[in-house]
Amino acid sequence: MMNANNRTTRLDDAIHRATSGPHVSPKIISLSDITTHPDFQMRNKVDNALVQKYAKAISNGATFPPIKIALVDGQYILVDGWHRHAATARAHLNDIEAIITPMTHGEALQAAALANSAHGKPLSQTEKRKAFKAFIKGGGHRLPKRKIMSYRALAATLGGTNGHTTIRQWMAKDFPSIHKLMGGDSSGCGSAEPRAYLPKRSTRELMLDISNIAHLARLERDPYKRYDIIQALEGVLTDMKSLEHCSSKL
């Protein structure tokens, strides 16, 4: 499974893909010059309580990481930092620090989709679905030599909180032509995904593994990390439930 550092690296790669150097220095940009288009906002709504908290901190002199802007055809599009952007406006400031990266429209959609999959307040299930759609519309599923990412790779890239079966089902409903290219099986029972060899284990051993994971989740004090564990388990559970109707020979 792709960990948080891997996901952040993937995000940084998407954001800096079109730049000539490995590092981009932040710049000061006017809020009025930034386009906040709903296609690039993965959240259903901005958390006003969080915006107010950020605004108060900004007014008291706190500094936040730069927001991230995609320069698409001369337009500055916000792809990461919606709460910071709103908080800066609420603090009655006119400018904000931003990393500005030239991108295509598709690259900007990918960057926006991956931004909150890698960090920040966890997305709801409907927000994850929107991020998935944006990532696919932006061409994030495409690999060199006209290849396509596997469902497992897509699930990991998008944060790993939904299993590959859920991603497969979303693809079948939202992008049927791509789903067909990937094998066309929406049941979760097919052989489109290669299966890793796993040694046979007793039910008792498997239950002990589940118990250990639950114990680790209870010990985790960081609520976001604990939430990630819970979401990952829910994704696995969703996958398992989808296989209830499958033949035991699969």
Spatial order of the strands forming the largest sheet: 1-5-3-4-2
Q: Could you give me the name of the CATH homologous superfamily of the largest domain? A: Conserved hypothetical protein from pyrococcus furiosus pfu- 392566-001, ParB domain
How many alpha or pi helices? 10
Beta strand %: 5-15%
Broad shape: flat
Number of separate structural domains: 2
CATH second-level architecture of the largest domain: Alpha-Beta Complex
Distance between the termini: 22 Å
Order of helices and strands: HEEHEEHEHHEEHHHHH
Radius of gyration: 20 Å
Given helix and strand content, the structural type is alpha/beta
Q: Can you give the mean pLDDT?
A: 80
In CATH, the topology of the largest domain is named Conserved hypothetical protein from pyrococcus furiosus pfu- 392566-001, ParB domain
Low-confidence stretches: 1-11, 14-22, 190-197
Counted beta strands: 7
User: Under the CATH scheme, which class of the largest domain?
Assistant: Alpha Beta
Roughly how much helix do the residues carry, as a percent range? 40-55%
